[in-house]
Design goal:
The chain has 406 residues and is α+β, with helices and mostly antiparallel strands. Helix content is 36%, strand content 26%. It contains 14 helices and 19 strands.
Length: 406
């Protein structure tokens, strides 16, 4: 009977799903560390969790270690310690090493977290990725841009997704983006060449250092365009044909990237590009579950609970490869204009024309302020055995659904 500790900053909807999935596994005794008090747990969750420990700052590895040690006394030891939050991966690794708990160590976690170090590892091993530099001043950033050419991208070295990421088309825009990042000595900004092409993701399950399963998504449009244009209703498509020969290059590069980074057992999320000339470039890799509802897409594509499957990987180190039955896609609903959400138009057309394809719906709430997240105010997920049908449905969906603000 393994004693397991799951850590999350708050008891968010995603964290709660993961806690419930882990607690449902046979024989697991689950404890939870959060910054939220135990009173925020639902009654069902509180009954399924063996213990809870609250900390003030879960990203402080000293507090995280203290909480884990206290829970270990109550459980009679801790066999696994894990979490999904990107910024938590290094502190978790530090605590595992300090307390002798099985799992990823700090050296590996830092290679996944520090995107500059990650790209140095890729380049040293001949893996395709964007040229980059660390700049402590605007002048250093401008010098790099003159070498590789505009546009360039400015981001934090330990960023997540497209948060705090800026595209600069000229020197004035670059200096403005660097000022927003506020780099200084010892705290640089990451400057990368801007890759022209389509952006995808590659999700991989690894067991004992070997990639045993993968899935793919294609973003429409690229996430940086979505962040810059808050009105865009964007889509993510996960094709059924993830084993198609046209993905041979990224599957091979993805497996090699995980190998050189030191991935052992877990789920990874890789952002990558297909350039206009057909070549690929790896953007970055995270050693945790993906965002943008991609975990839900994989659940629907295989008719399984993918969150539960991930917790099995993290706790038992086992994964039963599922059969991929469908192509799936998601359209994120975002309002145009300003003000609160007034109404959502076009849902009757969706129900009439593609209702049989819809498997998940989260609708914007009238009266609410628009969300600041790139996921917008709601979404609709569709699936079908044929990828082309999913793509056509999404294109139609974002053309007819309109979130009215005012």
């Amino acid at each position: 009977m393994p004693n397991v500790v799951f850590a999350a900053p708050i008891l968010s909807e995603n964290a709660s799903r993961m806690i419930e999935a882990a607690a449902s596994l046979p024989g697991v005794r689950l404890a939870v560390i959060t910054q939220d008090p135990a009173e925020k747990m639902s009654r069902e969750m509180a009954q399924s969790v063996t213990a809870h420990w609250r900390v003030n700052d879960i990203l402080d590895s000293a507090q995280l270690a203290w909480a884990t040690e206290e829970l270990s006394k109550r459980l009679g030891g801790v066999d696994r310690l894990f979490g999904a939050y990107e910024q938590l991966q290094v502190p978790l690794a530090e605590v595992r090493e300090k307390l002798g708990i099985v799992g990823m160590r700090p050296g590996v976690a830092n290679r996944f977290r520090d995107k500059s170090e990650m790209k140095n590892v890729f380049r040293a091993n001949g893996l395709p990725c964007a040229k980059h530099t660390l700049a402590e001043s605007a002048d250093e950033a401008v010098a790099f841009a003159k070498m590789v050419g505009y546009p360039v991208v400015v981001k934090p070295p330990a960023g997540a997704g497209s948060i705090a990421t800026f595209k600069a088309d000229d020197e004035a825009a670059l200096r403005d983006a660097v000022a927003k990042s506020a780099p200084r000595k010892g705290y640089p900004a990451l400057i990368e060449e801007f890759i022209l092409g389509d952006e995808y993701s590659l999700e991989t399950i690894s067991i004992d250092g070997k990639a045993v399963w993968h899935s793919l998504t294609h973003y429409y449009p690229n996430p940086l365009d979505v962040v810059r244009n808050k009105w865009i209703q964007w889509c993510v498509v996960s094709p059924r044909e993830v084993d198609d020969a046209k993905y041979d290059d990224i599957r091979a590069a993805g497996s090699r990237a995980l190998e050189v980074l030191g991935m052992e057992t877990g789920l990874s999320h890789m952002e990558w590009f297909r350039r206009r000339d057909g070549t690929i470039a790896i953007s970055e890799v995270a050693a945790r579950p993906p965002g943008a509802q991609i975990t839900t897409l994989n659940s629907r594509a295989h008719d399984i609970d993918f969150v539960r499957a991930w917790t099995e990987v993290m706790i038992f180190g086992t994964f039963e490869k599922p059969v991929r039955k469908y192509a799936v896609g998601i359209a994120f609903l975002r309002g145009q204009g300003t003000g609160r959400i007034k109404a959502v138009h076009g849902l009757d057309v969706v129900a009439r024309e593609m209702g049989s394809l819809v498997v998940d719906v989260k609708l914007p709430v009238p009266g609410a302020m628009p969300a600041s997240s790139y996921e917008g105010d709601g979404y609709i997920i569709v699936r079908h055995p044929e990828t082309v049908v999913v793509m056509q449905a999404l294109q139609r969906l974002i053309s007819v659904v309109r979130v009215e603000l005012g």
